[in-house]
């Protein structure tokens, strides 16, 4: 396999599909991992219908063993992983007076902790110059009291990216693209321009690399 491989965890019909499309347009094989194969396969079929190489797989992102199995399977099948995109987050409408510790830990496991087994499983398959890409959010700095766990997830995963980048460098790098706005169907915070910003963040040369990029629309 000579084509570069892009893998997105937490793929959905919005931003996940848009970013996968942007990388596919650059010649990447796009592997979209959703909650189930039934969720992911239609996304892959959409890209395939546009002339791209794509496949859909399902994975439970709260299960480290399942993550390891899926990522190792993709790496073995394709012989390489060039971009690992971590896109999930958990939305739970509970403020800090009602959010329980088990609920907080469950959400952080999905929205931040799942990145660890994903990178660990992908690392043996990383091609030269491979990148870890993480979808960040303004919630890391301005959390909503109505969904208190989201800000913790995004602050935690941003912090983790800093450590990952330092650990992977110089052969591989990691970046969190912090989206400082509310996702919408149109305008600067719609999926296509955000996907372009994520492509640009990953495509930067090493001499311009930083582990954090802000997208302000």
UniProtKB/TrEMBL annotation:
UniProt keyword terms in alphabetical order: Oxidoreductase
Entry GO MF terms: oxidoreductase activity
Top-rank lineage group of the source organism: Bacteria
Keyword Manganese: no
Signal sequence, renumbered to the chain: none
Gene3D superfamilies linked to this entry: NAD(P)-binding Rossmann-like Domain
Short name of any one Pfam family annotated for the protein: adh_short
KW Oxidoreductase (keyword) present: yes
Family listed: Belongs to the short-chain dehydrogenases/reductases (SDR) family.
Name of the featured protein: Short-chain dehydrogenase
């Amino acid at each position: 396999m000579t084509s570069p491989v892009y893998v997105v965890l937490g793929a959905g019909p919005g931003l996940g599909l848009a970013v996968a499309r942007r990388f596919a347009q650059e010649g990447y094989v796009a592997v979209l991992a959703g909650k189930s194969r039934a969720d992911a396969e239609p996304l892959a079929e959409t890209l395939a219908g546009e002339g791209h190489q794509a496949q859909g797989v399902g994975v439970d992102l709260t299960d480290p063993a399942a993550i390891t199995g899926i990522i190792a399977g993709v790496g073995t099948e394709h012989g390489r992983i060039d971009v690992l995109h971590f896109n999930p987050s958990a939305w739970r409408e509970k403020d800090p007076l009602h959010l329980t510790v088990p609920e907080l830990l469950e959400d952080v496991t999905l929205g931040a902790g799942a990145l660890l087994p994903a990178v660990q499983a992908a690392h043996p398959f990383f091609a030269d110059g491979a990148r870890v890409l993480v979808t960040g959010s303004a919630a890391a700095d301005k959390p909503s009291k109505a969904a208190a766990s989201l800000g913790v997830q995004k602050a935690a995963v941003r912090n983790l990216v800093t450590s990952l980048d330092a650990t992977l460098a110089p052969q591989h790098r990691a970046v969190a693209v912090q989206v400082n706005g509310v996702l919408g169907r149109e305008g600067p915070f719609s999926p296509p321009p955000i996907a372009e910003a994520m492509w640009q963040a990953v495509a930067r040369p090493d001499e311009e690399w930083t582990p954090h990029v802000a997208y302000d629309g």
